[in-house]
Every structure is written in structure tokens, then in C-alpha cells.
């Protein structure tokens, strides 16, 4: 008998409403707070959030309460389903640990730390759904996804350092000096933390540095997918698209270029770009 399996993913995945319906997944929302008012992906758009962030005096993000996961797990296990849960990287949020804690009360719930965020999670979601269509055992799918997560590169270019100060990752004096010197930061999401790979002056230098790091990581592997979620960073996106095509012969689909979730832009600030690269 074919197993009944429900896939649950958190809202940092940047799924559109059409995709949520198409893939028939449940979405557990992370929340954002702007000047004391709470929102999630259903109540404020990604573009509107960045515009509001420009004039807001305070903004922050919160992981889902454990009750959100317990409620979802109860619903689907009571209907005879096994569950696969995809969360953003545990290096960025406590969402994974919360889901694991909630799952301890249930049988047949498999929680995957995707080691990435935004569309990197969708790369894994599509692989998960493909294997479900092929009737692969759910335990095997869970292990396969954990392995495939190792082949997704997650970079973020930071244009302005202000939000890193607000998040406690940089001092005000460092940000002031960085701004005066036109310093840009390239970061990469590693196994346990977001690492600053390089600090350079100017946009073009930042993009060239990004391409260098992708080349080093790629080695003999093939690029399967690239996504460029961004915080209203059209100029950066155009530069990155051009360099990716020139260096790797890869043309990024317009469907994979969009304004990213507030869960990410809160911490990166405006004009940042996420570069998600799936290798095979």
C-alpha cells in the first residue's frame, strides 16, 4: 500500500501562493514585527515590507511557536499520514529545533534541516515531491534530502551594513567606516553559521568575488539550479546574472528572480541578494 505523506515547510522558503496550492504543502509561518505590529507571509507582501522597513524604528523576526507544529502534526498523523518537514537552516533560526521537539510526541514525522533558506528549500521540496511520486520510502527520502542539502550553496551579498548593526553582528563604528569606504560583504551559509567570506569595495568587485567562490565550490560538478531572491537589488541582480552566464553558461530563469521574504531581508537590509546554487 502506498504511504500517505504530507509535506510541511516553513514560510522562509519564499513559496508563492500559487506554488503552495500547486505542491499541496502546509506552510508554517515565521513572523515579523514592525514597530510593534506582527505580520506573516499572508498579511504583508515582501515588497511592502522592505518599503516599511525604510522608515520603521524597529523590526524583528520570530520563529514559529511550538504549538504551530504540534497542531499540524496532530492533524495529519490523526488522518494516517507520515510527515516530512523542511525547515530553514538551524544556523539561522531555532525553527528546526522547535520542529524536532514537537515531533518527539509523534510517530512518523521526519524533520529535515535544509542547511539553507528561501529557494534553496524549494530545490529540496521539488526533489522530495519527485521521490514521493516515485513511491520511495519516506525514511529513504528523508535521508536523501539530508544528503542533497550538502549540494546547495547559499551565499548572500550585503550592500549596506546597517541591519547587521541592528542584529548585533557589527558595531556602529565598523558600519560607519564600512559605509565611508563603500565596503560590501559576501557571506556564505555554512553548516553551523553564516560566515563572512570577504569584504570588498564596490559592487562589481563584490560580484566578481562571488563568482570566484562559486567556481571554487563547483569544481567538476554541474549547476542544476540557481535562484536570486533579493531585497530590491535590481542592479546587483543584473550584474550577477551577466557574470553567471559569462562564466558558467547558466541563464537564471525570471521565475527565480524575486523580492525575498522579510524573514531574510530583516537581517540583510535592502539591496542584498541571495544566491542559491544547486549542484549535481
Automatic annotation (TrEMBL):
Keyword Amino-acid biosynthesis: no
N-terminal signal peptide: none
Protein name: EDD domain protein, DegV family
Residues in coiled coil: none
UniProt cross-references to InterPro entries, sorted A to Z: DegV, DegV_C, DegV_domain_contain
Source species, domain of life: Bacteria
NCBIfam families: DegV (TIGR00762)
Keywords, ordered alphabetically: Lipid-binding
Alphabetical list of PANTHER family matching this protein: DEGV DOMAIN-CONTAINING PROTEIN DR_1986-RELATED (PTHR33434), DEGV DOMAIN-CONTAINING PROTEIN SPR1019 (PTHR33434:SF8)
GO molecular function terms noted in the UniProt entry: lipid binding
Organism expressing this protein natively: Gemella haemolysans ATCC 10379
Amino acid at each position: 500500500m502506498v504511504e500517505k505523506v504530507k509535506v510541511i515547510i516553513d514560510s522562509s522558503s519564499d513559496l508563492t501562493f500559487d506554488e503552495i496550492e500547486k505542491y499541496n504543502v502546509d506552510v508554517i509561518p515565521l513572523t515579523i514585527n514592525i514597530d510593534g505590529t506582527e505580520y506573516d507571509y499572508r498579511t504583508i507582501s515582501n515588497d511592502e515590507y522592505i518599503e516599511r522597513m525604510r522608515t520603521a524604528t524597529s523590526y524583528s523576526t520570530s520563529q514559529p511557536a511550538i504549538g504551530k507544529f504540534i497542531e499540524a502534526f496532530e492533524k495529519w498523523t490523526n488522518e494516517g499520514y507520515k510527515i516530512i518537514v523542511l525547515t530553514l537552516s538551524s544556523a539561522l533560526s531555532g525553527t528546526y529545533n522547535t520542529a524536532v521537539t514537537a515531533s518527539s510526541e509523534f510517530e512518523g514525522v521526519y524533520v529535515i534541516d535544509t542547511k539553507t533558506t528561501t529557494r534553496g528549500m524549494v530545490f529540496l521540496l521539488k526533489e522530495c515531491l519527485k521521490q514521493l511520486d516515485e513511491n520511495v520510502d519516506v525514511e529513504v527520502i528523508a535521508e536523501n534530502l539530508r544528503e542533497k542539502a550538502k549540494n546547495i550553496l547559499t551565499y548572500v551579498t550585503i550592500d549596506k551594513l546597517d541591519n547587521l548593526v541592528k542584529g548585533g553582528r557589527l558595531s556602529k563604528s565598523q558600519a560607519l567606516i564600512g559605509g565611508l569606504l563603500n565596503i560590501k560583504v559576501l557571506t556564505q551559509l555554512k553548516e553551523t553559521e553564516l560566515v563572512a567570506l570577504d569584504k570588498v569595495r564596490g559592487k562589481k568587485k563584490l560580484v566578481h568575488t562571488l563568482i570566484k567562490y562559486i567556481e571554487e565550490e563547483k569544481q567538476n560538478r554541474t549547476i542544476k539550479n540557481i535562484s536570486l531572491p533579493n531585497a530590491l537589488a535590481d542592479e546587483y541582480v543584473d550584474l550577477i546574472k551577466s557574470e553567471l552566464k559569462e562564466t558558467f553558461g547558466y541563464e537564471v530563469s525570471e521565475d527565480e528572480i524575486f523580492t525575498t521574504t522579510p524573514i531574510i531581508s530583516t537581517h540583510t537590509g535592502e539591496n542584498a541578494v541571495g544566491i542559491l546554487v544547486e549542484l549535481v
